[in-house]
Amino acid sequence: MTRGLFDTLLLVTHLLRHDLARTFEGTPLTEARVAVLWVLQTTGPSTQQQVAAALEVSARNVSALVDALEASGHVRRTPHPTDRRAVLLRLTEEATVLMRQMQAEHAAVEASLVDSVAPADREAFARGLDAVAARLGRLVAADGGFDVEERREGGGAAS
User: Fold this and answer.
1) Average pLDDT for residues 41-56, to the nearest whole number?
2) What CA–CA distance (Å, rounded) separates 113 from 129?
3) In the list 52, 66, 76, 96, which could disulfide-bond 59, CB 3.0-4.6 Å?
4) Is residue 78 helix, strand or coil?
5) What is the mean pLDDT of the chain?
């Protein structure tokens, strides 16, 4: 029996989360804490408000994550250069090295995954995956989440 697209996406999500959990086993890092590190890696020093906005979570949620990351030596708080009330979050040198290592590992895994697709199919696969991700993003962002009628009416490549 052939697995449907949604079941395949769920399987991929499960496998990625399982791999992340295994990677961080025995460390103080979690998926949520690493998300904060990714934001700081890609945007540079940022306020907690900026990190919260990037992650689409509350500043209070980020505060707890940053407390843990500061305690584990991954993030440090520094005074904001122009706003005395704000602090900037910065990666420590240890976290910078870790994030570069993670980027290299992600690139290697990505190359391996791409290699599993026939060269002639790679461009179409990438376009299709981008289209599915974009569509799923729109469905999730819609008020009320997934709408059955919306899925039926607007779902195909022709729309």
Assistant:
1) 94
2) 13
3) 52
4) strand
5) 88
